[in-house]
Write the structure tokens for this entry.
Amino acid sequence: MFTQIKEILIDHEVGETPLVARVLKNRGKIPYEFVKSSKIQNADSSLKHGKQLLWITRTPGGSVKPCPATNPPYLCCQYTTIHAMTQCPFDCTYCILQDYLENPLITLYADQELIFQEIATVQRGEPKRFFRFGTGELADSLALDALTGLSSDYIKFFNTRKNALIELKTKSAQIENLTELNPKHAVISWSLNPLSIIKKEERRAASLQERLQAARRCQDAGYLLGFHFDPLLRFKEWESAYCDLLHQLFDAVNPDRIAWISLGSLRFPPALKDVMVKRFPGSRILYEEMIRGQDGKMRYIRPLRVELYRKVSDWIREYAPDVFLYFCMESPAVWDAVFGGHPASNADLDFGFAQSIWERFRDEVDMDSPERMFYS
Ligand code: SF4
């Protein structure tokens, strides 16, 4: 199940923590060793090696932050990220973490109770906000859940919190720990791409079939679902591939249980191109017409992005007319071209999420009226 992990290294300073005890109980035959952090600093620093090692240590603090997002004019949804782990055992060719994170080791923080305290502090600091928190920005939320069991800790923590949802975002099918829990205040979400792209560009991640079956099981267990078409890619026959993917998605799940769907076309900092070419010389996804955007990231030229978004969003709307559909890191001009309007600001987009959850799911989410929260 987590065969990609070849060794577990444990910072001797956290050796007595409950999370380490749980990992050791779940590790099967994976060998482990207690080491000093100085040994880690001298370890093999290649990504290929790092993705096979699980390093458990203390959190450096500052684990709960606004999404690093991107610069204006691109709109950001004001998500709040939780760094419960960093790095990922999967190996997607386009993964931004290859360039973004200096540490190639999959790093799990043993003192999660400090992170929970940070979450409470962040919420106390802005009592008039409805928060969307997520652990899937610098890691895959569930890829190693059979080993860490972190999903249960987070779902139980958020069950009793008001005005907040936790999103666990994944390309795995590791949902065994979820199905017996109280699903309140949790959105389980999947990044999706057509099968041909999964095979070529999302190495070691679960197949499309496995992801959709896992989503269906989470729906049946009472969870809200999320889906992320990110990165949306242009390739030969992309139209039929995405059309077919949406048919399969809505065959598997009920649109009424989907909290949100995001669309984001391929984008990356220029430095990632060298890493991708070196690590994945066979990948063809870089060879479309791209420009350097105002935030410095490479992306398809605007007419290509608009065409991609228009078609995919129209197909989504056919199946799910009421779902909250948004762009990750897009300009107001693209929002206008595709949706006929754009949020007035990042805060307005954040408000839109809260409004949609209030209108569709207030019977199952403890929350105040967004109008009252934001405008009183
Ligand atoms: S699943 Fe996400 S975090 Fe993991 S390698 Fe792929 S893009 Fe990166």
In short: The pocket of iron/sulfur cluster is lined by residues 88, 90-92, 95, 97, 140, 171, 205 (CB under 6 Å). The CA atoms of residues 59 and 109 lie 5 Å apart. The chain has a mean pLDDT of 94. The domain at 58-375 is CATH 3.80.30.30 (pyruvate-formate lyase- activating enzyme).
